[in-house]
Write a structure and sequence with these properties.
Elements lengths: L1 H5 L2 H8 L22 E2 L9 E2 L1 H15 L4 E11 L2 H8 L4 E4 L5 E2 L1 H6 L3 E4 L9 H13 L8 H5 L18 E2 L2 E2 L2 H5 L2 H19 L11 H16 L6
Parallel strand pairs: 2-5, 3-4, 3-6
Antiparallel strand pairs: 1-2, 7-8
Helix pairs in contact: 4-6, 9-10
Bound molecules: S-adenosyl-L-homocysteine (SAH).
Length: 241
């Protein structure tokens, strides 16, 4: 699952260019019994199986021996702290990160307490394994490594990069089924385009994710736009509230 996803697109190119290394480890390689079992029934009873602690501890110890001690050992779990762009940026600054993926009902809690250095969730829903969350984290982190995404400005303008959402994008044709690209974008007025994009990004954030604006890094022009939009909202006869 992990290797399949890493074989495509931006991630594959980044790995090929050695901008990052990702290695998937099979927990069964770190078992000692004949059946190579990685799971067992839960103490106390109940449905499902639980990942045993030994293979996870051994896997991390082997990784530390092979490549050096990791600076973070992330357990992915629905009970973790919400993974967000700031967390991605923090992890992108580390040299070696291990991500522990659960399965079944989850992982023996001694792994969370004594092996993981942190616990991250990718959202309030339950997936059947930690592989997709791990890939989500790897992808978000990889985009922030210089050179992975061709154009650095593209990453700097992404949603959440400065705490606000991205502005809408358009490409050719200028008119498609009667729907036209906003005039300003085809006008060639760079100053106007820049302002329009800022206004769109702030308006979108204000409408959809106003809570983001509290921590957003806005420049003077953007602060002015926000003030104006908020004034207008207050004055509107049918405000959102
Ligand atoms: N019984 C657990 C869910 C286990 S799901 C509970 O209710 O919390 C199996 C594994 O999938 C978890 O151990 C975790 O590694 C992964 N997983 C599932 N949903 C996730 C999410 N939203 N974020 C991160 N990891 C998740």
């Amino acid at each position: 699952m992990i290797e399949g996803a890493l074989a495509e697109g931006i991630l594959a190119r980044a790995i090929q260019r050695e901008l990052l290394t990702v290695r998937a480890r099979d927990l069964r390689e770190f078992t000692e019994d004949r059946h190579r079992s990685v799971d067992d029934v839960p103490y106390g009873g109940g449905p499902g199986m639980v990942l045993k602690p030994e293979p996870l501890f051994r896997a991390v110890e082997a990784i530390a021996r092979d490549t050096g001690a990791p600076q973070a050992i992330v357990l992915v779990s629905p009970q973790g702290r919400p993974f967000c762009q700031d967390e991605a940026a923090r992890l992108a600054g580390l040299e070696r990160v291990v991500i522990l993926c659960g399965r079944y009902e989850g992982i023996d809690d001694r792994v969370r307490e004594n092996l993981a250095t942190e616990e991250l969730s990718i959202g309030d829903y339950v997936l059947s394994g930690g592989e997709l969350p791990a890939l989500v984290i790897v992808d978000a982190v990889a985009r922030l490594i210089p050179g992975v995404v061709g154009d650095e400005d593209s990453v700097a303008g992404d949603s959440f990069a400065r705490g606000i959402l991205d502005f809408p994008h358009f490409t050719r044709p200028a008119e498609f089924r009667d729907w036209k690209v906003p005039d300003v974008l085809v006008s060639g007025h760079h100053g106007e385009i820049r302002k329009w994009r800022k206004r769109q990004a702030i308006e979108l954030t204000l409408q959809r994710r106003p809570e983001l604006l509290a921590d957003a890094e806005l420049d003077v022009e953007e602060q002015e736009i926000l003030r104006e939009l908020m004034e207008r909202q207050k004055g509107a006869p049918h405000g959102r509230d």
